[in-house]
Design goal:
Layout lengths: L9 H6 L10 H4 L15 H4 L2 H10 L12 H18 L5 H4 L4
Protein name: Cytochrome P450
Organism: Bombyx mori (Silk moth)
Length: about 100
């Protein structure tokens, strides 16, 4: 979230090339939130299980209600906490268990 608003370190910003920021057409806008990142593709399972591809996948699964209209870190953190705490209570963290071969 900070990266989209220029509030992160240079190192983090350089980890994701500018082309990864997804430019949506009208058709895609209704299905994804405004901070969608293009997933990293790889032919190896090992890379797909690494931090950045998994994090991007989980990031893209967030509902648009988590993101405020204007930059507001407190609002974002509260919304994120609600989503993630709900997943833990239900015992469903999509993507995590499947990636590591559990379930």
């Amino acid at each position: 979230y900070r990266m989209f608003h220029g509030e992160c370190s240079e190192e983090l910003f350089e980890m994701i090339p500018a082309s990864r920021f997804y430019h949506r057409t009208a058709r895609h806008r209704s299905r994804v939130h405004p901070y969608y990142l293009e997933p990293l593709r790889s032919s190896t399972v090992r890379f797909q299980r690494s931090f950045l591809p998994r994090t991007i996948r989980l990031w893209n699964e967030l509902p648009s209600t988590v993101f405020p209209e204007r930059y507001d870190m407190s609002f974002f953190k509260r919304g994120l906490w609600r989503v993630l705490s709900g997943r833990q209570r239900l015992g469903s963290a999509p993507g995590i268990a499947e990636v590591h071969g559990r379930r």
